[in-house]
Every structure is written in structure tokens, then in C-alpha cells.
Queue: 4 jobs
Job 1
Amino acid sequence: MRLNHRKLKTLNLLGLGGFALCSMVSQAAPTTIVLGNRHSDPSLFVKTADSREAAQKLAKGFVDTLNTKDPAKMRAFILSHCTTATPVETRLQRMMSVTNQFGPFKVVRFGTTTDSEVRALVADRNGDNQTFIVRITPGADPKIVSVSITSPDQVDAPPAVSHSNWTTLSGLATDIAKETRSPAMAIAMSRNGKLEQTVTGVRELGKNDKVGVDEPFSIGSIGKPLCSTLIGKLIEAGMLRFDTTLKEALPGYPMKPAYENLTLEQVMQHRAGLPQDLGFPPGVVQRIVGDSTDPIEIRSKYIKDILSRDVIAKPNERFAYSNADYAVLSHIIELKLGIPYEEALRTLLFQPLGLNHSYIGSATFPKERPSGHVPGPNGLTVRNYIGLTDNQSSNKLETMVAGAGAGIYMSVADLVRFGEMHMKGLQGEDGYLKASTIARLHQGVHEDPGATREYACGWGIQTSPGIQQWHGHNGSDGTFVSDLAIFPKSNLVIVAIVNRGGQTDPSPGFQAITAIASKYAPAK
């Protein structure tokens, strides 16, 4: 398996991170991989050669320890050289996962180094370069706070700039797009019921066509809360329950005994132990679905393949971000309704909420929309993956993982309206769903022991310094990066999307969300 920037997402490796994984990554996974709190103070720059050497030596030691693949040596390194904010066993588990999938690693060179982070260009076992961003504590004896693995073009990038002094939404979008080298960025927010939105930039790098304010962007894994919302709708209709088991929901489907009593709630929370399916090596899609073209049949074959494999964990044993989870859920929805998941999403969610600039399935996309981009040795290049080529495996992959967010494009205003519906439910107001249903969908479980981040039924719940707790999700197909955040206490919903992958850390959308929230949803 390769670190696949087409599916770049954030993997919570040793502490706080994003909602997705490598080659999904992210979340997955595809990857930006985060091993702790990812925020640093960009004003802290290395003052001396000694401190620079100490910081780079620590980063090199981290890579060397990964290459041992020895749990005892990794545990000793964590105890000696990492902060205590994240449990040792959590860090160990994630380090082992990364090195087993992609190691050994080799440091090619060091890039940007400050008192708070070291960036290193690192080659994985396939010879592909990645950027390791090692966040550290200041001082002569630094400790590792977090490690992110992201695209190679980030090795010499400066630390993220604070945008807390922004004055206009359009100015904020322009500044972030410029700093992250994004061809276009769209931001929308609803504050006390008033919508404000902006878009800056071009559909395709090197061309002059500007992105329109209502044009749709790929939302990636934000498709997961869309899927869980439909599950909530079927629960209210009496067709499903939160504790419906897979055996009940998929009658007649062969499955290993370990899957039979898994509940829909466990699947929505990524705590069921299903395979993660964060990336698909060449030939696997064709092996699974063969010559099938009917979407329900394609997903049926895929779900049977998932359920024929071994579980990766016992129910509720641990959080494991999974695209397969939401593929299973989407198939359950279409079996209950007797229509393809794509049609269900359009008729049961997009239409009732008036989301007129939202699409699922590449055949339905409008021609006037932004293209995706990926970083390479010569800068960004245009790249449209799932469903937008003549590659039939790509089209079938879109269908297989539609429930996880593949092939879904929405305008930022539509995505804000979706977020508003959930926010009103969190505030106790019945609407598209009952407030009690929304409360259950947003009932989070800590991703890891001792972690502050929680994951609910398609929703992450997290905090950041200086701003209120929020509910949200991020997403990426490797060519776009999207972020959605809901601040129920401040009656605020924010959406931000760029049409480039190869994530920066923090993502452009995350930077926009924290900047806006610092003004309108500050911590009390």
C-alpha cells in the first residue's frame, strides 16, 4: 500500500487530529497523520544552531524508532521524548500501524524548522516522499507534541499564519487561498440565521474561469453525516433502530459470526470493527464487483466482500475510522427503501431541505464547477478522480463508497443549510429530524482513552484553544479539502472548501473555521 495523496485525509495517530485516515486516506488514508495536538505558535522561531540541531535530532530519532518496528523501543521513546497529553498505548498503537503499512522510512532532508516544529522530507518504503511535521515543545530539551505526515510540497512551507484579525469573509478566503496555494476557496457561514458566503479563485489553475458562488465542490467524507442523517430518518419512520443488528438489517447476507450482532449505532460511530478500506490497490475493485453496473448490485457485492473478512477489533474495543462502515449503511438504506442510495439522498435529503446545488453521482454534476488539483514536483496539476474519467474502475469505486462521501458535490451554502438543520436539533428544535434523534446522532464517544476528541454517528466533536466546542466533519478525495463546523451555543455554522488536495496542516478550512470562531464563538 502506498501513501495515497488522492485520498489524503487526517489520521488521528497519537492524539488530536482530523476525522479521516490515510488513503481515505483521511479522516482516513490516506495521509495526513496526526500524533497529538496539531496547533503551534508560528511566532516561535529557532534562535540558535543548538536548538535547531536538538529539534532535528529529535525528529530523526522519531523516524529511526519507527523503523525498528519494536513495540518496546517505541514505548521507551514515547516515555522519554513525547508529552504526556496522549496515552502511551494510544501513541504506540498508531506508530505501529504507520510503520507496518508504510515503513521503513528514510529522512531525505530537513525543511522549515522553528522552536515549535520541524519539517522533514521523508521517503517511505515505496520510495515516495512525504513531509513529516514534528511539533515540539520549545527549549533545549524538546518533547514531541504531535507528528503529521502530509504531502512533500509542504516541507519548506512556513508555519500556519493566524487569521484572527480578519475583517471580511472575502478577504479571509483570499488570504488563506493565497497562503495555501489553492486555486479557489469558498467559505459560507450562517450566524443567527443570516447566510453570508464568498468564493475566490479559478476553476482550473492556468485558466481564467472564475468559480461561481453557487458552484459545487467535492465534500469527501462530509458525506458520512449525510448518510447517518438518512439512517436517522429511517429510524423515525420505524424502519430501523439504533440497535438494529447487521443480521437484522441484511437478511440473507452471509457474514462472519462476529458481524451478526453489531448495531447500526456502532457502525455509525466507527466502533464496530469492520475493515477500514481506506484505499484500494489496483485490481481490487474489479475483483469485487466484476462486470456489474447496477449501483445496488455493485454495493451488494462490496458489502458481501466486507462481511467475508475478519473483524479488525471487537465491538466498542476501539475507534477505527472506516469507509466500509458507511458503505454498509448506504446499502442498508437502499435495501429498506428499494431505491439506489444516490436516489435516496436526492429525494429524501437534498430535495426536502431545498439543497438545489447538491449532487451525488458524477453523471449528474453540472459542467460549471471547480476542478480538483494535486501537488507534484512541478506544483499543482489538475486532477479529477472518482467518476470523472472513462476509467470504469473509478466509476465503480465511486458507487461502492458513495455512503462514505464519494462522488458528492455541494455548494458551500447548501452544506451550511444542512449544518443549520442539525444545529437547530442540537438546540432542541424539531424539524427535518426530531431533536431527540439529532441528539442521539451527536452523542459522542472518546476516540481514544484520555483523548478530548469524540466521534458520534458521523459527527466529530472537538475543541481548540480559545473557541467553543464544535460538531463537524472534514473530507477529501485527494483533490479537494472540505471542512464543516457547527457551534450550537453561538448559533453559528461554518463551511470552507478548497479545490486542491495534498493537505496543508492545519487545512485551509480549519484555518477559516478557527479564525471565524475566534470572533463569533470564543470560549467563555
Job 2
Amino acid sequence: MKSMNALVIMILMATLIFSSGIDVAKAGTLNQGPDRTPHMASPLQVNSLSITPPTTPQDLAIAMGIAPSDIVSASLNGSDVLGVGIGSAPLGTFFPREGNTFAILSTGLAESADTPNDSDSLSYDLDGLNSADGNDMTQFILTLHTPEGINCASFDFAFYSEEFPEFVGSQYNDTFTAEAPLNVAFDSEGNIISINTVFGVTANNGTTYDGGTTLLRAHAPVTAGENIEIVFTIQDVGDSIFDSSVFLDEFIWSNDTNCADGANDYTTFYDVPTNYWAWQWIDQLYGAGITGGCILEPLQYCPEDTVTRAQMAVFLLRGIHGASYIPTDASGIVFADVPSSYWASAWIEQLASEGVTSGCGDGNYCPDDTVSRAQMAIFLLRAKHGSSYSPPAATGVFTDVPVGYWADAWIEQLAAEGITSGCGAGIYCPDSPVTRAEMAVFLVRAFNLL
């Protein structure tokens, strides 16, 4: 078996400390706001989960969304089935991520999440990772066969601990790792992923946790057709009390050009991690209902794909009229190359009706041609200000857009309105095609979708 680049995700309790002796806390739940940007919000009590032990380790993998045909082997070490479980009831607003189940690994009894105020469950006292002083270790080892045409494996997880606030950030830190040897995965800023917030200071019935991460998504590059081994381990590092749990779900194979070892905060689209330059703009566009992505399973945006003139028509009209807008049926006689049966015919004809476009020449619209950044400047400003709008004369703002360039005034006005700052130091790249990532920025700024 060829080893893949290692994926190691370590979560250390680096939590803010409240008053000493307070043994009350709530775990944060992820609140999907109107812009779909993940953030920690209302308290969460983890006490009404329906948890069952897996019949076999394979069942735990299946609960994460892994297809049985992809499982080469699965095994449990440490506290065996006592520290694992399958959840089948909602955990806050974000588990299960797919289907009806998710996997649970715990340093204590997984079933204890159903019991009230369980803060000192003990299981086994075992050596930790790499002979470290670890306790209550639960380890889940998976060997998977990577399907053809795949270069990335990812899964969603959240980690919670009931360590007292005065213990976190100390030698009693609890850890969760997902590892294959030879590498350590850090976040986009090179830091070990940390729990950095304690939630709540009032008593709560049921099992609660002192700290928790946001919903995170881990990624690892893989090689199609080969086997990979992933070892999930959760353990108390310096003591054998005050348990922690990790919730795992939505294991996904994908072909992602942005795949890299590490974990990021969850975003709407699988191919738009939080270290992608335009992720917030793309999430805002989705939250405004302007886009539903380019692929549904898993949901993807295809940020590096170029925008066609047909796609642009849909984007612009939704920006003008709102997410719920639907144009009237197409006649099929406006443009010779856009019959009424064409998927975006109604949108294209409506864009022409509103004076935003007159086509590409000779009675055609060229719906499958890409849109250049120069063309987009005109389309955006007409869509924003109306068909009769004319920008002021150009003065030569960008070095690659001299006065006299056919779209110079439009490009400079787009910059004057703060919709673009160009593509680099003093340049606009007017003849470059617009990518879907750039389109998100243009639309959010032009139509104030923040």
C-alpha cells in the first residue's frame, strides 16, 4: 500500500479561562446566517442524542458516509466499542451532515452523552500517541480504496471537551488527531487548530462541554486507485477524567484542484475552502440566492471556471431583480443562435429586453463564449445603472487600459465605484476571461449583496 501525504489534525484545548471552579458550560452550535458564513452562536446541550454502538467497525465508517465498497478494512483500538457510537438524532444544526447518521469517538463511554451531567466517565488508561502520556484513548483505523478519477478525500468534524476551564491550555489538554505518518497538517496560517472559546457560564441540564471548535472540514490529497490509511485517535493527554468527543460525518471523495493537507472552517462549497481568496464573496453570493453552485453532490462552485455569456445573463438578472426572479418564456426569435429550447434562452432575451446587451454581432448572442473583464465592466454598469448609462471619459487609470481602448471609460468607472481594483499592481487585464470567483466579487460589490 502506498502511503499518501500524511494528514494529521491535532486539536488542542487552548481555551479562554473563566473564573476558577466554575463547572458549567455549553458547547457552541454553528449558526448558518443569511450569508451562509459559519460562526459560533447559540448554546448547545448535547443530551438527547440517540446513540447506538456499531455492530462492526465498518458500521462506524458507513455512518460517516463512506461507501461499503470503498472500505478495505476497519478496526478499533483502545477502549474498543465503549468509546465509539453512531448518532442518529440531530446534534445542533450541523450533524448529521449527510444521511441520517454520524460517527462519534469519545475518551469515555460514547453512550454517556445521553446521561445527565456526566463529567468524569472513565474507560481505559492507555499509552498516548508516539508513547506520550495519554489516557482513555479511542482509536479508529481505516484503510480505504480511492476510486478512479479522485485526488482528494475530505470529511467534516467538530471536537468538544468537558475539561474544566481551569484545566484547558495545560498539561491536561485533550487531543483529536486524524493521521497518516510523515506530516502534520496546520491551518491556513500555520497554526495547530485550537479550541479558543468557552461557551456559557450558567448551569444546564444534560451532558455539556466546556469548549468546542466550529464545524471544520479536513482535506487530504490522495492517489486514484490506491489504498490509504487514516487513523483517528482521541485521548486525554494528562489525565483520565473529563471526557472529550469528536463528531465525524460526510466523508467525500472529490477531484479538487485546491486540495491540500489541512483543515478549514466549513464553508458552503466543497471546492471553496476558507483559505481561498474569494471564499467570503462566494458564500455571500450563495446566501443571497444568486447562485446554487455548479455541482450538487458534493456542492461545488467551480471558482476557477470561466463565465459564459449565458451564465452571465442569469447572474446579472438575479442581481438586478433578486434571487426569486424568473423571466418570461423565450420566443426564440431575438438571437439566431439562441433558440427557445436553449437552457438560458429566457434569461438572454430578457437581458436584451432591458438593454444590457445587444448581442455579439450579426443577430447572434454567442451564449457559450466566455466573458472578458472588459465586457463585464460594461455589462455590470448597464445592469446597475440602466441601459442609457454612459460613464465619464477615461483618464488612463490602468497601465494596460490606455485612453482610446474600446472599453476604457467603463473599466475606469467600475474601479471608481469600488467594484474592481484591477488584477494586479496598476493593471486590469481587460482581455482575460472572467472566472466564477471574480464574478462573485463583481456581483456582490455591484449589487451590494454584503
Job 3
Amino acid sequence: MPKALVAALTALPTIAAASRPLLVHRGLPPLPSGRSVTLELANLEDAGTGGTVWSSSHALCRWVAANLDLRGASVLELGCGTGACGIFAAGLGARLALLTDGGPPGVLALARRNIDRNRGLYPSASVTTASYAFGEPLPSGDFDFVLGSDVAYHGGIEPLALTVRRLLEASSPPRVLLSAPDRSEKSGASLTQRLIGTARELGLCTEVKEEAVRQFALHESLAAEAVRTSVLELSLDRAVDAAAVEVACMRVNAKPSPAIF
């Protein structure tokens, strides 16, 4: 992670300290009602990288609002962090939203506070949280949509792709939409490129629904910079060699789950 980004995240106030001012994020796209989602933020010590709202969350929420009808739908959010996408989905009319994360305990505590903070946007919806790390047995329930923003990270792409494959193997598979920034690894390949390649190995098709560059700042008190973000839809590829896919899935499943920063 870039040193400047670590410094910015570390500077966010510790949410456990009541004497410090609460830092909130109000930058998500407005809901059709004209109202907005308000999200409490946390610093690295409390919630790791899950304590802030990333450009990918903005991109995914914007695309979902413009292209999907979530009224009455059930939604699973992977790697929820602050809960931005799941809460936004509930604000768009989803009847059920399960927000999951496998990060530090402070992440889900933060997401629950944000669920309560925005309860007025979805008074009749069921919006809950659950601990879930990629590659583990799937959360129970049938879902119409699966959302994940900035969930492709070094060491975690293969478990993520395996989780997506398992979700898509359901008798009534959900639509799976992920968003990721054009962030490069040491190898020079972007995380998005690695996700697409790994998904292909596990028998998944990836369609780029949107690729755009927008100005983004972690918080209104910080300078904005141009960030390229992609929104991807993943689905099963019925034309691949099933035996090869099974071998790839077994290989990924045998690896220990990576630590989440």
C-alpha cells in the first residue's frame, strides 16, 4: 500500500475515542428519493483498510443505481468494509441485504453502526452483517445479486474467484458485480487484470460493464486525484474444460486463506 495512503488512513480519527470528532462520508451518489447515505469512517487501527470508502464503492453504487432494479431483491455484499454498497442497495429498495467481511472485528462493528445510522432509508428491509472470509463455506441464503467493491487484493484474488464460482453454481445463480481500481502490483499487472485471469482459470467469464476515470478523495478534507475504476460482471463459462476447472478449484481451496490488512 502506498505510504501516502497509509498516512492518510492512519490520520482518520479513532472511532473508539469519544472525545474525538466523528468522521463521516457523504459522497455516495444520491438515492432516487434525493436522500443520501451517510457513513461513519474508522482508521487503520480500528478497521484496517475496511474503515474508509474507496473509489470502487462509488463506481459500483453509481453503476447499480443507473442499471439495476433492486426493488424487492436480496443482496449479498462481499468485503463490505463500511457497508457502503449493501446499505446503498437497501436504499434502492432491496428487501434484504447481508453485509459480510473477513477483516478485523472492528469492520463489522462499523458496518452495523452504519446500518443503524441509515435505517430511515430502508425502514422495512432486513439489513444485517456476518463474518465471512473468501474461500470459506458460503453464507446461507439465496441471493439475487452479489456486490463487492475493492475486494481484489494481493494474495486474495484466488479465494475471491473461488467464492464467486461457488455462488454462481447455485440452482438460481445471482448476478455478481465487482468493482476494482486500476491498481498495479509489483509484477506490473493490475489487480483487475489478475482477477480476470484467475476467474478464467476457474471457469468464469468476466464482462467489463464500465471503465472510467474520475476524481476521488478519501474524504472531503483530502485532495482529490484521478482514479481509474472498472465495474465487472462475472458469470459461469459453460464452454471450459470441467476437469481443468475442478483441478484449479482444488488447488485454490488447498491454499491457506491470506490475512486481510
Job 4
Amino acid sequence: MTGKTKGLLAILTGVLCVGLIACGGEGGGEEGGEEHSSGGEDLSMYEGPITGDAAAGETVYANFCAGCHPDGGAGVGPDLHDRTDSPAEIRYLIRNGEDRMPAFGADQISDEDMENVLAYLTNFGMFQ
């Protein structure tokens, strides 16, 4: 492995560890089907159609989401199957976090990769 590859791997590992720690704790969190609260925030900047690629989103999901939401099911994070959140609400949640879920800035998950994750989430029945 090159030094650059090792550095990237170390960063990704660190981000995953932070996500796992943030998702840890007692209790099961939200139940599937419940919507998150954006706290009355204006979601207009997060609105728009899903433009991502589900196959690419699977890789991003595996790296950033599956630690708490394995196979979209309830791990230490809530079950993602058949949730009723809108794409705008999920974009907001990814960028701002909520409860035990950490926020992922554009320096961690790019806008393109966020769209890819949203496309992948349709496999769990979201946004139907």
C-alpha cells in the first residue's frame, strides 16, 4: 500500500469508528416507520429528486452507514425499511445528525455520494 492509500484508509477507519461510537449506547433508538424531526428547520436546500446511482451508493452505505444500520435493518440505529422520511429529511439528517447519529459533512460524504446513498436506500422501501 502506498502512503496515500494508508492515509485514506486511516481516515475512513476513523470516520467509521466515530460513527460506531455515536451509534452505541443503550436502547434501540427509533422504531422503523417513525419520521425524524428536523426541528422545524427549513429543508428547502435539501429538496430535489434523487439523482444518485444505487450501485455506487451501496459502497458508501457499507463504509458509513452499515455499522449502525446493517442491511438497512435495526442494529444500534433504527431500521430503515419502509421509513416515511422524505429525501430532503434524509439529506438533512446525513448532514446534521440527530440523537446518536453523527453528522457527516461534505468532506466526509460528498454531495454525489449522499445522492448515491439515497438511491441505494430505495432498496429498503424508502421514498416509495
